[in-house]
Amino acid sequence: MSHYLYLVRHGEHQDAEHGLRDGKLSERGKRQSMLIADRLGGVPFDGVYHSPLEAPSETASFLAQRLPAIQPEPSTLLFDCIPSGPTPDMPTAYKKFYGGITEEEIIAGQAQMGDAVAEWFTPAMQDRHDLIITHNAVIGWFVREVFQAPEWRWMGTNVAHTALTVIRIRSAKPAELVTLNDTAHLPVELRTGLPVEQPL
Fold first, then answer.
1. How many CB atoms lie within 10 A of CB 149?
2. What average pLDDT does the segment 137-158 reach?
3. Measured between alpha carbons, how far is 136 from 151 in angstroms, rounded to an integer?
């Protein structure tokens, strides 16, 4: 039996290009949310969870409008966070990221991600499908968990707004990354949120 995690980054929020980490969805973010809802329309979800922050909450509400069978639930395990701190094996280029980050933020993020992995990286007695609407860092950490990669590797994983990442968890085999940053449902002009432009 397989436990599928459908990870979706929230839609673009207003003033995202100015570095704000949360806010109401932009018009593009609303369109992105409707398109990912249409993309996921045939999946028999057993649970739908989202970060309590504004952008993912609003993204979840758009999905609920188009997929009336789902009932999104907020989870504090899905807040945006700093999943890990600097480590000796981390490339020097990444270390400057931590200039404004406190030790308390790192400790809180580590605890949160430990609990999130314990909550969702669990085998199921029968096929299960869970939708998780969250933030880039959380998705990056989950992808890192699949490969049991060094802690800092979450920093090298980037997904677009409302891109789809799917993880499969089974009891007898390691977790599998089925797809990462799938934007097939988004036209080029709606593929936002990545550090570099996507021409295709």
1. 13
2. 96
3. 15
pLDDT digits (tens, 9 = 90+) for 148-160: 999 999 998 999 9
Calculate the alpha carbon distances from 157 to 5, 27, 141 in Å.
Answer: 17, 25, 8
Identity of the residue numbered 113: M
d(CA 8, CA 160): 9
Rounded CA gap, 153 and 88, in Å? Answer: 13
Alpha helices in the chain (DSSP H): 27-39, 54-66, 92-95, 103-120, 136-147
Distances (CA, A) of 6 to 23, 37, 79, 95, 197: 23, 12, 17, 30, 24
Q: How far apart are CA 175 and CA 125, in angstroms?
A: 16
